[in-house]
Amino acid sequence: MSARQRVKFLVVVAVITSLLDLTNSFQPLFSLAGNTKTHRDITQMAVLRKTAGVCRDIAASEGRDFSLKIDNSLSADKVQRACSSRGTSSFLLSTMFQTSIANMYFSNAEVDVVLALSEKHHFDDETFQGGRDVITAGVSAVKASVKLENFVAGRSTLGRVCHTLQDFYSHSNWVELGNTAPFSALIKPDKPLTKLAGPNTPTCRNCAEGNCANNLLPDLLQQGLLTSGYFNIFSSAKPSGKCSHGGSFDRTSKQDPVGGISKDDVESSHGFLHHKAADLAVNATMELLEDIRVTIGDKNFLRLMGLTQSSVLCFVIDTTGSMSDDIVEAKRVSFGIIDSKRGTQQEPSAYILVPFNDPGVGPLIMTTNADVFKESISKLTASGGGDIPELSLSGLQLALTAAPPSSEIFVFTDAPAKDSQLKNTIIGLIESTKSVVTFMLTDDTARRRRRRSSHGVFRRALTQSDAQLYQDLAQASGGQTIEVTKGELSLATSIIEDSSAGAVVTVFQAVQNPGRPDNFPFTVDGLLKNIIVYITGASSLTFSLNSSQGVTQSSSQSSGPLFSLITVGNLRRLKLNTENQTGLWQISVDSNNPYSVKVIGQSSVNVIYNLLEAHEGAHRDFSLKEGRPLSGGNASLLVSVTGSETVRVTEVTLFDSSGPTEVNASLQSIGNGNYLVTFSGVPPGDFVLLLKGEDISSPSRSTPSSFQRQAATRIKTSSISVTSQTNITNIEPGFSISVPFTVAMTTNGVVNDSAAGTFTVRANNDRGYASTSPNTVTIEAGSGGTANGTVTLTVPANAASGTDVTLTIEAQDAAATDINYTVLRFSVVERVTDVTRPTCHEVSTSANCPSSSSLCASSQWEFIANLTDGISGTGIESISIRQGNGTLNTSTVVGTGGENVTVLTYSAFCCSPNVELVAVDRVGNLGRCVGQVRQSTTAAPVTTAAGGTTSSRGHTLSITPTLWISVAVSVLWK
Ligand SMILES: *[C@@H]1O[C@H](CO)[C@@H](O)[C@H](O)[C@H]1NC(C)=O
Ligand SMILES: *[C@@H]1O[C@H](CO)[C@@H](O)[C@H](O)[C@H]1NC(C)=O
Ligand SMILES: *[C@@H]1O[C@H](CO)[C@@H](O)[C@H](O)[C@H]1NC(C)=O
């Protein structure tokens, strides 16, 4: 197929391919050619540098050292270590920071897929106003999400905004104009965009024999006018005399003036400026991050970046009548974790609580404040719920979409799920988020009918098939199903404490269902601490453990040389003593009932991975894949090793959990611990991902250097393809959106265009918003093997800006044996009409500091300013001191135009001669007040207030009653 035919094919059929193939920006994720900076590189560098800078400022304010050099050699590990206030080399790194950075660059890259043809999202076609609107609306959305502590959604939006901002430097002539600083007006909506080349102003001339170095018109450059390249894959039409983007897919660049000005990579028309543009894009991204940082504060900024050592604590709790003991226990264990970890590295980074009952689910409580969580969980009471099944899956759905990826979620219930129709939606969300779900199922012998389970262990209200649903979900996620009596629950919750230890890694995991005796080898490495083995299964199960040194201990010894054992309900917890015993261990389990084995430990060395969608185009690149990989097709992954610069991945394997199938991957290192992993022809199945590697820093034979980590989440393949072509990312409250989707049957990863059949469709969203969807779609014979449908989703008018909603669209074949899905995440964002920043006017500076700095501690100075968001602004929400050690007092008066005016009175000792105050309005626009002491040689200094107070803060107003009056007057007369 020729390139043009291919383009047409892609656009018309657009099934499992996408427009990324026509990429027209910095390369999204990878540059396998090298020497080119991608959106991923730019975003990562800006995030690392800005995060390190914030940590440096925090360290300075706390009087701590910060020795990390902030340059382009930063890595996530280095920044994470330097930002740790304890700063010890022994502390364990979590993968949260790297995972968050990956979320940002994947959502950044997605703009090239879903918004490939939108000019303004790439600053093509001189759409400067449109592009700036995309950026400023996006920044408002990020701030709205952070306000709701919705950092996951905030990160996705931020990634997308960065794409548009970064493209400006590649697609416009900003660099060619000789600029060496970012174009700040792009993040300041109230600044006019000046010096734009008008619609009739010619901007380019033909490139001379393919050399585009001098194709911008000298007039344009002399006058300093801004332009950007036109881009179109369908038509060569463009306004006369205008520059093109350039490149093989851009048809406008074949038309006079031929050639282009893009700096996307070193091969582009203006490729000689690629690195300049990319460096400036890094600085511009940092400027945008700084704006967000100042608005939301340092603490929230670091949370938004995912800079936290610890995981979230996430409980989904049944609050029906019989659950009071369980609620008491959930409260006890969470209070224990909070109280023992407060102020430490392991303090949970956030708390999520989802109560469910019948008919209610929620409200979801998500907070970074431990006391808010404590209060919320204390308020839970068990009541109601006459009929037995409860809405456990709806509760879990909310938790899965709210928690950061790879969280561990604990569900407490004693009842079957009433909403079992959500099963596949939940599995889709588990696969998409890689979160681990563990069920704490308790037996209520008091209220519910006694039944004997097939395991014969418990008298439980849940039938075996009820429990099976929970087991299936736990298994898909790598979690466990703990079945205990209510009396035993407090012994089983140690599993929650284990998972909140920080830097928890999965070493090995297997489920044997149906059960049969088997041996499970696993490698213990020297970087692994506090190893715990869980075995769940019937009470008749026995096992033995062999260490790498040949020592054996069996389940009949509850304590011994290798482990100490606690058995509660169906759970056995083995705390291992592995000191100096690295190497290959083995667990042998003897049982003919279903069982599971899981080995965890704590280590900085861990692996994060994401499934990719490959795009073969002008450049080979990838985007994040949602949904299951296609049976028989190729599967690509981006794998990143974290926590050490001396470990490398040597082997990545997919194991079929139910059979002998094993698929090996080809590995390509793309630098900094990242690997592009490709599995060719993945057979149909249900896989676990095992990674092996070695630490090249310890080549000594006595300390074996190999390690293994296993992905908790199962990877399942499907022959069904479900894709959505929506370009919508934000929804306004009160509005509906239509989401078109396409279902296709595939063979060996390719659409089978002779397939026919009917598929059951389900569309579910986690917020319970109104939605419509066809119940089925049918692929008609001869229709090319695809069927289309549309889901509509309506956001209620009262939905808060900053909320997010996750929509899952599933298609299942007629035999109900195969299913695939796509997951779409939207932010609810109110349209922002207030784009003006709060303004600040200095009223007075009483500035009589002594010229000798040795006397500065005995004198004070005062700065008074009026701050307003104007008559049509949303109003000032917060004011904080960015610089200066003084005291700030505020009061509100009404200005002459009826606007609210906040009077700022700042006073400080003369030793602190500068002040910078920042004010944020309700939609996140940022204003600044800057004041500086003026040295006086004549006037007497303002002296400190005398009498009795020891604090240097909080009493300054009392000494200046006259000033107050003058301020009031000056405001009234303004
Ligand atoms: C999104 O898609 C719709 C329908 O395909 C199209 O009309 C609209 O222009 C697109 N918007 C953007 C920003 O690409
Ligand atoms: C980016 O900013 C850094 C310092 O903040 C500066 O040293 C560097 O020159 C800037 N890069 C560009 C391309 O302007
Ligand atoms: C493990 O090794 C360290 C140093 O190699 C040694 O100090 C320690 O005693 C050893 N522990 C055991 C249980 O052998």
What count of helical segments does DSSP give? 17
Regions with little confidence, pLDDT below 50 for 5+ residues: 1-22, 446-460, 937-974
Bound compounds, each kind once, are: 2-acetamido-2-deoxy-beta-D-glucopyranose
Name the shape in a single word. Answer: globular
- For the largest sheet, list the strands in their spatial order: 3-2-1-4-5-8
* Rg measurement, Å: 30 Å
Q: What is the beta-strand fraction? A: 25-35%
Largest sheet: 6 strands, mixed
SSE class: alpha+beta
Jot down its keywords.
6 domains; Rossmann fold; 5-stranded antiparallel beta sheet; disordered C terminus; 17 helices; alpha+beta; Jelly Rolls; 974 residues; disordered N terminus; 6-stranded mixed beta sheet; binds 2-acetamido-2-deoxy-beta-D-glucopyranose
